[in-house]
Amino acid sequence: MRFGRVDALVDVTVSISPGEQVLVTGQAASGKTTWLKCLAGLQPPTSGHVRWGPDDVARLDLEERRRRQRSFGMVFQSDALFDSMSVLDNVMLPLTKRQVPRDEAVERARAVLDRVGLSAAHGKRPEELSGGMKKRVGVARAIVAQPSILLADDPFAGLDPSTERSIAELLLEVSRGRTLVTALPDPVASLPLARVLRFEQGRLGSVP
Fold it and tell me: pTM for the whole thing?
């Protein structure tokens, strides 16, 4: 059986300035997540260009791409936490990958957990936490390495309205001084970002 070609993104041209906060909306399979992956260098485009400053992601070798990816922090739709590890160790992962000395990594992870309101959860396992608390752990992990760019892929998935508001407030607080790009199925009042992009079947559409 042969399947036809699917173009996830078509003729998408966007420029994002340092420190800008952007909301990306669109239905499922509209291209939002693929675009975020391209921005982060996790999925180089098959055609076209993704530029980080003067550099084209597709032209960078693997080592340079990995080095530049350190500018990004990612908040995932799924929590993507390891239940076999403590909350503290989950948050430390980006630092461990960068071979930060353990004492320093522990100190930095504790500090960001305190910042997101989880000072009492350092030793807990993710399975012991509520959905909102897991999201806070994900935000802590995304910022622990002090990235200049924060990407959030549907960070409110599965949350009740009250928890959604608290996570939205947290994202806005931790993204001060950083570039923030958030992908959501629909705009939400709790995340009032000035610039809104809408994807429709892989293309940029109009914002209602």
Answer: 0.88
